[in-house]
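Chapter review: from sequence to fold.
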Amino acid sequence: MSIPPDKPEVLAFPGVLYAAAFAGAIGLHMLWPVPILPEPIARWSGVALCLVGAALILWGIATMRAAKTNIYPELPATALVTNGPFRFTRNPLYLALTILFLGLSLEINTLWGIVTLVPLLLVMHHGVILREEAYLERKFGDAYRQYRSSVRRYF
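The token string follows.
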């Protein structure tokens, strides 16, 4: 019997998945623009969401660094982080990337951002998040199960 590697073996690096989906949205927007809102409302709403997403990313990264654990999923987790934004959601960085994705979609005012976000979230859920959760349960056992039972997966 082989020992599983000390990493979650995610389908792909999450930032690459979000970037590829957004590139697809931009490509579709260039071929067939479908605006969501009137221009000034879309732009300012997008800016606001991007600021919220960026702040959440920075908070999550700072919290993980303070815990001295790895941020990137191809590296082993060295600590179970349950403070900072991890008190409210088990996946603050992915939630932040989603907020940022929506903000950028609004800034360029394209419905294609919403359309491409749906399959992206399915890939993230099945190809990244569920794999990370299984890894964290193997690695941290009861501590992770307790955390999982008291903090929501997303929001």
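Two observations follow directly from the output. The mean pLDDT is 96. The two ends are 38 Å apart (CA to CA).
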